[in-house]
Amino acid sequence: MADLEKLVEQLSALTVLEAAELTRMLEEKWGVSAAAPMAMAAAPAASAAEPEEEKTEFDVIIKDVGPKKIDVIKAIRQITSLGLKDAKELAETANAKVLEQAGKEASNDAKSKLEAAGATVELA
Q: Distance of alpha carbon 35 from its chain centroid, rounded?
């Protein structure tokens, strides 16, 4: 047993870089990976975590204006109260955010209005 105690003392004296190098060398020699047991140990903890809360705020993003650009501009003005110039610029901008951090109901309402006008919309 004295040899094991001596080994523990020697390992305790290693620097972090030396310990990492020792780990790499042992992985190569034994043909194993130290990461696998760590991943398996972390998996039960992740599954035991509380379920993720439902998202309540969304960004309304126009992916594509579609063929009815004027109708989309009108819908943007109705949703945001922007002026004509600003609504037109928003419609012409790729991946433009019409609303940011809007409530679920407001986001779904805006999405349905924009889609009815011909736009392709995403909630993020």
A: 24
Strands (E), the chain: 57-64, 96-103, 120-123
Count the helices and strands in the chain (H runs, E runs). 6, 3
47 pairs with which residues across the strands? none
> Within its chain, how far is the Cα of 67 from the centroid?
31
**Predicted confidence band of residue 44 (pLDDT cuts 50, 70, 90):** low
* Residue length of the chain: 124
Inter-residue contact 64 to 120 (CB < 8 Å): yes
Q: Would the pLDDT of 37 be above 80?
A: no
Task: Supply the range of the domain harboring residue 97.
Answer: 57-123
Q: What is the CATH number of the domain that holds 110?
A: 3.30.1390.10
Does 71 lie in the same domain as 23? no
Tens-digit pLDDT profile for residues 80-102: 888 899 999 989 988 888 888 88
Determine the Cα–Cα distance for residues 80 and 108; give it in Å rounded to an integer. 14
pLDDT of residue 71: 93
